[in-house]
C-alpha cells in the first residue's frame, strides 16, 4: 500500500517507523518529513497545511492512504480536500477536528454525550473585569486557564498562583482568543488513543505523558517531556471504562451531529476520585506518547489506519501488542519551551535508528544534524519491566550530545516505584 504521511515531528517519525516495518506498506512517502524520517521514507518539500499542494502530491504519487499527523492540517481542512479528491485519509474532517480546535465545542459535545469532564466557563474580550475576578474566585486555586484555540498543548497554565493565572487570562484575551477556565481534576493522567471510524472504537495501549518542563512536575507546561506505556497503576478494565464512558459516547454524539469522527481520538483523562474525567481531546496521535505506544504494536499499523479511512475498522483482527514496556525521554533544546535555541550540532549514538532515537526537531545543515525545534529528539527504551524500559532510554540519552539541551530525569519514575495512586477507585 502506497502511503503518504503528513508532518515533520517525532509523532510522524514514529508513525513512519511503524509503517516501515509493516508488510502492508510497500512505498512510504512523507511531507515535509525530517532527517530521521528521510531514512525510511521519500520526503517531499510540501507544506502539510496547504490543501491544494497536498492533494496534488497525493495524486501525483497515486497514494492509497494519506495519514495526517499534526492538528494544523486537520483544522485547515486538508483531510476534507483529500477525501473530496477520492483519496483514503486517516484524519477527521475539519468539522470533527473541532473537538481539539475548540475547547468550548468539545465541552458542548461532552455535555450532550453525558461524558464526565471538568466544569468550565468561557471568558471573552468583552467579559467585565469583576466577572473575570469572580470566575477566578469560583474556579481556583488550583487555576486551570486554557487558550480556547490551537496551542499544541502549550496554551494551558495550571497554577496555584492567582497572579500567574490572571496574567495568562490577560495574555490569551489580548491575543484575541477566548479563555476557558476549568475546575482542577485530581488524579493521575492517562492518554488513551482510540481509532474511531464512526461508531467503531478501538483503543491502543494507555500511556502517560509528563507535561511540565522540569523534574517533579515543576516549570512551565510543554508539549510533553517523556512518556511510558502501558500503565501499571491503571485499574483492571480501565481502558474499557474510558472507551465505554468517554470515547464511545463522544463517537456516537459526533455521528448524531452529522459529523462522524474518522481518525484518532486522543482522550486525555484524569483518573480521580470520581473515576476518569476528560481533561482534553486531541484529534490526532499525541506526541511523545505515540513513540512508545507504536513501538509495542505487533499488528499492521497500515491495515488499521486504512480500515479507519475506509470505514472498515470493525472488520480487522484485534490489535496485538508486544508483552513489554516502552518509554521515551525527550531531549529538549536550551530555552524550551519559551524560546528554544536552534542550530546546535547533534552527535552521538543511535541517531540513525528509530528504535533508539526518534527525530522531533532536527534538520541537516550540510552533512551535520542540528537542532531545529524545542523538542529535538525522543529517545526510546523498551524492556520486560518499566524500570528496564526507562533504564534503556536513559542509557541512550547519555550517549547523545546536544549543547545546552536538557531532559527530565524522572520520566515514569513514580510509576516504576509504585507511587502513582488513584484517589479512590469507583
Ligand atoms: N502529549 C501531549 C499532546 O500530544 O498534546
From TrEMBL:
It catalyses: 5-phospho-beta-D-ribosylamine + glycine + ATP = N(1)-(5-phospho-beta-D-ribosyl)glycinamide + ADP + phosphate + H(+). Residues 107-310 form the ATP-grasp domain. The keyword Protease does not apply. Keywords: ATP-binding, Ligase, Nucleotide-binding, Purine biosynthesis. Its cofactor is Mg(2+); Mn(2+). GO terms for molecular function: ATP binding; metal ion binding; phosphoribosylamine-glycine ligase activity. It is an enzyme of class 6 (ligase). Pathway: Purine metabolism; IMP biosynthesis via de novo pathway; N(1)-(5-phospho-D-ribosyl)glycinamide from 5-phospho-alpha-D-ribose 1-diphosphate: step 2/2. One of its GO terms (biological process) is purine nucleobase biosynthetic process. It comes from the Bacteria. SUPFAM superfamilies: Glutathione synthetase ATP-binding domain-like, PreATP-grasp domain, Rudiment single hybrid motif. Its EC number is 6.3.4.13. Belongs to the GARS family. This is Phosphoribosylamine--glycine ligase. It comes from Corynebacterium tapiri. The lineage of its organism: Bacteria, Bacillati, Actinomycetota, Actinomycetes, Mycobacteriales. The gene is purD.
Amino acid at each position: 500500500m502506497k502511503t503518504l504521511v503528513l508532518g515533520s515531528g517525532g509523532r510522524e517519525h514514529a508513525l513512519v517507523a511503524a509503517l516501515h516495518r509493516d508488510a502492508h506498506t510497500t512505498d512510504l512517502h512523507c511531507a515535509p518529513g525530517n532527517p530521521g524520517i528521510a531514512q525510511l521514507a521519500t520526503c517531499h518539500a510540501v507544506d502539510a497545511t496547504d490543501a491544494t499542494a497536498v492533494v496534488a502530491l497525493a495524486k501525483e504519487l497515486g497514494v492509497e492512504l494519506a495519514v495526517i499527523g499534526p492538528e494544523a492540517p486537520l483544522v485547515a481542512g486538508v483531510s476534507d480536500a483529500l477525501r473530496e479528491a477520492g483519496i483514503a485519509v486517516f484524519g477527521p474532517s475539519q468539522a470533527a477536528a473541532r473537538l481539539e480546535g475548540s475547547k468550548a465545542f468539545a465541552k458542548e459535545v461532552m455535555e450532550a454525550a453525558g461524558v464526565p469532564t471538568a466544569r468550565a466557563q468561557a471568558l471573552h474580550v468583552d467579559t467585565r473585569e469583576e466577572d473575570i475576578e469572580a470566575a477566578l474566585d469560583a474556579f481556583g486555586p488550583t487555576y486551570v486557564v486554557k487558550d480556547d484555540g490551537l496551542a499544541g498543548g502549550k496554551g494551558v497554565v495550571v497554577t496555584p498562583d492567582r497572579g500567574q493565572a490572571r496574567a495568562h487570562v490577560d495574555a490569551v484575551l489580548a491575543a484575541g482568543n477566548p479563555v476557558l477556565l476549568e475546575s482542577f481534576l485530581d488524579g493521575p493522567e492517562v492518554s488513551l488513543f482510540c481509532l474511531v471510524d464512526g461508531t467503531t472504537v478501538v483503543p491502543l495501549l494507555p500511556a502517560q505523558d509528563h507535561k511540565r518542563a522540569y523534574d517533579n512536575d515543576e516549570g512551565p507546561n510543554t508539549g510533553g517531556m517523556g512518556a511510558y506505556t502501558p500503565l501499571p497503576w491503571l485499574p483492571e478494565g480501565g481502558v474499557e471504562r474510558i472507551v465505554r464512558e468517554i470515547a464511545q459516547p463522544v463517537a456516537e454524539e459526533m455521528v448524531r451531529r452529522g459529523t462522524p469522527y474518522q481518525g484518532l481520538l486522543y482522550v486525555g483523562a484524569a483518573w480521580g476520585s470520581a473515576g476518569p474525567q476528560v481533561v482534553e481531546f486531541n484529534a490526532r496521535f499525541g506526541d511523545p506518547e505515540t513513540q512508545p505506544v507504536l513501538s509495542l504494536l505487533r499488528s499492521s499499523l497500515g491495515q488499521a489506519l486504512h480500515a479507519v479511512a475506509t470505514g472498515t475498522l470493525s472488520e480487522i483482527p484485534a490489535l496485538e501488542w508486544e508483552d513489554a514496556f516502552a518509554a521515551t525521554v525527550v531531549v529538549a533544546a536550551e530555552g524550551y519551551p519559551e524560546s528554544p535555541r536552534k542550530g546546535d550540532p547533534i552527535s552521538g549514538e543511535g541517531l540513525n535508528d528509530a528504535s533508539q532515537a526518534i527525530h522531533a526537531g532536527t534538520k541537516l545543515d550540510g552533512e551535520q544534524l542540528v537542532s531545529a525545534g524545542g523538542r529535538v529528539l525522543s529517545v526510546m527504551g523498551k524492556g520486560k519491566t518499566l524500570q528496564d524500559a526507562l533504564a534503556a532510554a536513559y542509557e541512550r540519552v547519555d550517549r547523545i550530545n546536544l549543547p545546552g539541551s536538557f531532559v527530565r530525569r524522572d520520566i515514569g519514575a513514580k510509576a516504576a516505584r509504585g507511587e502513582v495512586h488513584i484517589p479512590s477507585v469507583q
